[in-house]
Known about the structure:
The chain has helices spanning 4-13, 29-32, 41-45, 59-65, 98-103, 120-137, 156-168, 182-187, 204-216, 226-229, 234-247, 251-264, and strands at residues 21-25, 54-57, 74-77, 79-80, 93-94, 108-113, 141-145, 173-176, 193-196, 221-224. By secondary structure, it is an alpha/beta fold. The chain has one domain (4-226): Alpha-Beta Barrel (TIM Barrel), CATH 3.20.20.70. The mean pLDDT is 95.
Amino acid sequence: MADWxxxxxxxxxxxxxxxNTVMLAVDHGYFMGPTRRLENARATIAPLLPHADxxxxxxxxxxxxxxxxxxxxxxxxxxxxxxxxxxxxxxxAITVSMRDAVRLNxxxxxMSIFVGxxxxxxxxxxxxxxxxxxxxxxxxxxxxxxVGKELEKRDQRYLALACRVAVEHGAHLVKTYYxxxxxxxxxxxxxxxxxxxxxxLDSDRAVxxxxxxxxxxxxxxxxMGRNVWQSDHPVAMLKGLRAVVHDKATAAEALDLLxxxxxxAPTLAPA
Length: 271
């Protein structure tokens, strides 16, 4: 049985109503720099924070851009070392100590693993070491099945393998992509899965349909970034996603809610 503290930190991020989570990812700058509409991280995060069950970010943005009075659980990105300027994004290492994660009151720490990439070995050994450190102090570890620039890897066989490998190395939850046959990915992964949004999709409906399909097939939540804060109506989008994840709304029902919120909210200026 998991330590009480570790279990409590996991529970903080999950809604007691649905058992699911709506995480907001704003950690993109660690390898992409000032991504569109995340240039001013504080301004982007502030209106969304009340509607997120957890916030996924780096320690630099946490310290500089999130009020210390916030009670939203933190999923702290602790891997890095490569940027979008490199062809191989898999050359990452652990960049944050567990001591600093505890100092920052993180509810979980997160790192990318690169299964099948040139630095696969390093990322998996680093995951194991991070789990060892997390277990010592009661901090859960979320493994992120990164694919670098090779988006074609996001199929069921690859993702099922990557998620299962993450769990076998001790991950307490896994962030991965939705795919055809996603239920098989979930079936082979005995810890909660949250689904990434990936690059910005072409419509609000597409985002909501992705979330609905993932939840219906067994995901325990979402961890989306660009499909929320690059939206012209980010708060409305996040509310629509919450309806899907927590209230079992269909994509059509969530879209109606989103459109209603749009009508009451100003549109963001083009970035």
